[in-house]
Amino acid sequence: MIGSIKWNFIVGGIAFVATLAMSAGHNIWLTTLVRSFYSFIILFVLVFACRWLLGTFAGLDSALKSPPEEAEEEMAKGTAFDAITPPDQDAELHQMLKNRIDDAAPQAEEALFAPLNPPKLSTKISGAPDESSWEMAQALRRMTEE
What is the spatial distance between Cα 27 and Cα 34, in angstroms, rounded to a whole number? Predict the structure, then answer.
């Protein structure tokens, strides 16, 4: 919620005084006081609702409550990128590169490579329909009759 409850009392008090001043000449004192009290209550609740809506949905509450140190940290986020490569992997990488250059292993690996030869798919072509299609046709005929 934005602000404090003193804003509710200030706005409610202004409404109370304004209503009292405007209706004092036209109404009896009891009616004037009751209407002024009603205006105080209504504006007190409206200001409370506005403070809650602004704090909850607009996100203004978190921006106002954050201390200055956190605000500076938030502004500094994303300005620098600190990436460090682990040093223990460098030696392993150099050793792998030396082995690759010294050995003739890449040529042996290439000689072992053979592409896959999957079997070709073939279908039975016959003049007579198979049993499953005949059964499906019979089922379809029964369903259309029903």
Answer: 11
